[in-house]
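Subject: complex prediction, re-run

Hi both,

The earlier run crashed halfway through, so I resubmitted it with identical inputs.
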Amino acid sequence: MNFKLKDIVPQLITVTAVVLVFGFFTYNAQINMENRGIDFGYGFLSQESSFDVQFSLIEYDGSHSYFRAYLVGLLNTILVSVIGIIIATILGVIVGVARLSPNYLINKFAAFYVEFFRNIPLLLQIFFWYFAALRALPLPQDAEAIFGFFFLTIKGLYVPAFIWQNFSVFFYSIVAAIIAIIVIRIHAKRVQENQGKQIPVFLISIGLIFILPLLSFIIGGVGISFEVPVLKQLATTSFIYEGGVSLPPELIALTLSLSLYTATFIAECVRAGIQGVGKGQKEAAASIGLTPNQVLKLVIMPQALRIIIPPTTNQYLNLTKNSSLAAAIAYPDLVLVFAGTALMQTGKAIEIVSITMFTYLTLSISISLLMNWYNKKIAIQEK
Amino acid sequence: MMSKINFLRPDKNNLNTFLYLGSFLFFIGVLDVFINSFFRLNLTGFLPGFLSFLFPLILGFIGLYFIRIEFSGIKQLDLLNKHINTNNFNAVLSLLIIFVIIKSLPPILSWFVIDASFAGDTKDVCTGSGACWTYIKVWMRRFMYGMYPNAEQWRINLSFIALVLMGSVGYFATDRFKKYLTLYYVVIYPLIAFLFIFFFISGGPVFFDFSYGIIAAILSIILGFFIPAKYKFYYFLIVPLALYITLKYFIFFEEYIELGKLDGLNWVETGAWGGLSLTFIISFFCLIFCFPIGMAFALGRRSNFPLIRYISVGFIEFWRGVPLITVLFMSAVMFPMFLPEDFFIDKLVRAIIAISLFEAAYVAEVIRGGLQALPRGQYEAAKSLGMGYWKMHIFVILPQALKLVIPGIANTFLALVKDTPLIFVVGLLEIVGMLNLAKTNPKWLGFAMEGYVFAAIIFWIICYAMSKYSYNLEQKYKTDR
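This time it finished cleanly. Structure:
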């Protein structure tokens, strides 16, 4: 065994230092908690929480446990992240492509957008939308209907709710369509490899995804109706909308600012990705007789995506982490519900902050592991 | 010579006809929107609502269609076509953008300038529909300095001016002093800045420590000129510290100050610091601290010792995986539990430690990128010269790697500046926090918009300047390689 003192000593010193620091902290924490009469443990999670949360996706009130409160916060965080990611991606791709437009005005407009929203702190943007912009909206009784169904008021956005009949049939029809598409794709690839024939997979896929759900409406007895929100008077000056789905202004402000902010970064990723594909690639593809559509689909996009996806995933991660700023405008996300209210009530600082950090850590590390795996898969195989 | 005109296919033969007609239609379309938005006159009111709305767009579209003639021979027209009018789709988009700009200018202008109130210093002057800049004017000191006492604010100004002057030394240094610049910026300047901010701005009894430090430094530098070069290293290692201790504990300088009726500076607790100056202070310190920590962990992550590598990876991934707000939460509620009972750390210091550790992880990744980008030959060449680990890194690897990652570091710093408003979590109020406080003042309710716009402008200027600077640096170093 190759045993060298020179290799061992620095490692030993580092590890000792780390252990000492951690030991020092734990020792102090123990003494501090003893003095204050707090005992360490995660048992509080099953206790009754006795606080209410304004907006939750699952059933929740004060009689539920702290763990339930944690779930409410986590789901709210995931909700705002998912909506934000979807909007930011759409907006980011549009702006990123617009940045490369030969049209001077579109180009400059996109550049202006990127430079403007990127250089203002996200927290300030959230405050701006929540405290300044959304406060200028009308009261419920003065709100005008948008397209007859939506009501944008100072108390939030009210949208119609879907009421399904036989929803499971509709759901299964979509699942069936997706499975059929996958099967056809695999089949088409095999046919092309063996016989050189091309099957119009895209058209068939589009047909399937529309036709199967449509059949479920006609044959499967699926029905859909809307429940439009209706204004209701509570007191002489107090109105609310009943029915439908209501999105609180906190959620709107948060999604708006998160997606507007993150879209600028995604736009830059998209731009860099498309620019990163050499001009020669396009010309070479055109010269072997590919149509412009094929050039885009078979040559440019696969290479551009290779550059775009890793930094974009990073931006998704950032968005998810930034959604914790929700606490500043009292949107009940993980930080506000759990690291805020629950911590104030139980006083279990170490447990709660560690759970919160661990949750975010799990979220980030799982996404980055996924990204690394994907990156390895699509990386150019160099010899 | 006039030939047959086909209005569906503009061509070069009837260039003039199409040019005049097209420009005229385009001009009418733009004029309609312009008059509509600036003078609130609807010229097309006689048309049905939907058509009236689309009228300028249709006119402009036809106009642009007419003037889309390739190789017309008129330079301006060709340029115009190439830039905003390549095809129908682009023409519509261009028109929409032009209309949006014309439409949005008047409300923005009137809110910002025309209907805004600037004069006076009470809320009563703000009656117009525009912005109330009086509010910003009245609260300016609070937004800039937080709760720092008005009479003492010169200390912040003086410190910042001194630090900026001392920071700009690099631009004026002659070749003779250039080689000391790195030492100056990495060791001396941060130290002086630290003394300035934590002693001069904070004041109080600690201020005397600061004065002893300065006096000891000046005295030892003067004396240093008479010390032979051989002993200079040991001299500067021992004498300044010794002088400082002598001054502090044996000469009782405080009594002299009192005898000479020189009052010390009033102590201002860090809780009173705030506003934009706090943004600068925090960004500055976090930059100074996160850089060496990040460098250490970047080297640790590439170390050959597995244990050191794992610890570094753990550290970096931990901080990169959690949001800053939870880190600040930790520094506010969890960290005090980890310290001995009577041991109290100021909350500003705690926030700075938290943000520095957080940003250090990002800096570490940026520096690691630079280290990885260096060709392996550099390491091998340094080793073949018989250099050890530290010599190799200090003289060969790091100077090259750091030069590569300057833009990345600048971007991290930009993110840091944008993250500073988060310190509201620990109860410190920099400019955004002060805005939220001012907004709830009963005398000045209802001016949230002005405040946020003001802060947005300030942050935008700072961040935009920094991103442009980092972009310039990137371009500069790109050509160097």
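DSSP finds 20 helices and one strand in chain B.

- K.
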